[in-house]
Amino acid sequence: MNEIVVIIGGGIAGMEAAAQLLKLGHSPIIIEKSDRLGGHVGKWNMLFPDLTPAKKVVDELADSCRDANIFLNTEISSLNRLKDRYNLMLSNGISISTKYILFATGFNMFPAQKKEEYGYGIYDHVVTNADLEHWMNGNADKRMDTSGMKTIGFVHCVGSRDEKARNPQCSKVCCITAIKQAIELKNMYPDAQIYCFYMDLRLFGKKFEDFYTKAQRDHGIHFIRGRVSEVSEAMDGRLVVKAEDTLIGKPLKVSVDLLVLMAGMACNPDSEKIASQIALPIDTDGFLKSSDNIIHITSSAKKGVFYAGACTGPKTVPETLAEARSAALDIHTAIIKER
Questions:
Q1: Of 223, 139, 143, whose CA–CA distance to 176 is shortest?
Q2: How far is residue 139's CA from residue 133's CA, in Å, rounded to a whole number?
Q3: The sheet that has 258-263: what strands, in order across it?
Q4: Can 4-106+268-338 and 112-265 be said to share one CATH topology?
Q5: pLDDT tens sequence across 150-184
Q6: Rounded Cα distance, 65 and 124, in Å
């Protein structure tokens, strides 16, 4: 019953699906365009809400799929369907024929520079959530002035729930990520004042509300409901954040030493590029379109093509892993039916 299953993407969804397919007796092939497995999670430092080291999660998943055939630094040069099989030509010159493909192509971080009013790439000391995690992982960043971390601001929903940015969906993880990072910075700089500017706090996951309560009660982090309208730089190099506190109906201005922009999840253009070669439908938000959004989330409109993780929309780590397991089982079921 052993079947070759091509998995496009070596992030946590691709690795978990490969691990499950191996257990089910199949031969998964992971195709990853970067030089390592792990995707976005592999670049993170800690994961909410338990502050679990991201490296621990990625290493465990990588170990579980080590028997899969893995191609790193490899892209899909072409993809087509002939009769009942899909033919892939890889950038390394290898061709693969298979009946089953799993898209685990993930997402892209929203490019924060598109929101010019926040000053990313213009002012010193404006970083994104991804930049902050990179720095927390021990990498140097000249924008992080550790000698002057007295006041820190977080801006939620940068590029999410934003019609002008053509990214209307909620990215799901930005609110809780801001809280996690605010707590981490408070632990590093106990005397710092930290402000989170938010539209609405969407804390739907297990222990998320507890994490939010802890941020206020135990760490004194300030939450201000209101969208930031403008960020400017003062003569002393500090950033001036202008916003409106919609709870009290008054404008406010806060000077900060560091501003962290919570860039959301956007669709991965590589997903659409590959999907277009076999006419897979794209949803209105730019992500790949599942057969439906209730029962057949991991299925596509094309026979033999499946999805897992954030290629179909923003997902948390537990959701992504659950979808990967579901997709692997769906592929296994499809293989059995074909026998």
A1: 223
A2: 9
A3: 126-128, 258-263, 151-158, 193-198, 222-225
A4: yes
A5: 999 999 999 999 888 788 889 999 999 999 999 99
A6: 42
The amino acid present at 125, given as its one-letter code, is: H
Q: Where residue 59 falls among pLDDT bands split at 50, 70, 90? A: very high
Kindly report the average pLDDT of the chain as a whole number.
Answer: 94
Name the CATH superfamily housing domain 4-106+268-338: FAD/NAD(P)-binding domain (3.50.50.60)
On whether the 112-265 domain is CATH 3.90.550.10, my answer is no
Q: Where are the domains of the chain?
A: 4-106+268-338, 112-265
One-letter amino acid of 336: I
Find all residues with CB under 8 Å of 296, minimum gap 6, and list them.
Answer: 290
259 pairs with which residues across the strands? Answer: 126, 153
The model's pTM: 0.95
Q: Give the closest residue to 20 by CA, choosing from 259, 331, 338, 280.
A: 331
What are the pLDDT digits (tens) for 10-22? 999 999 999 999 9
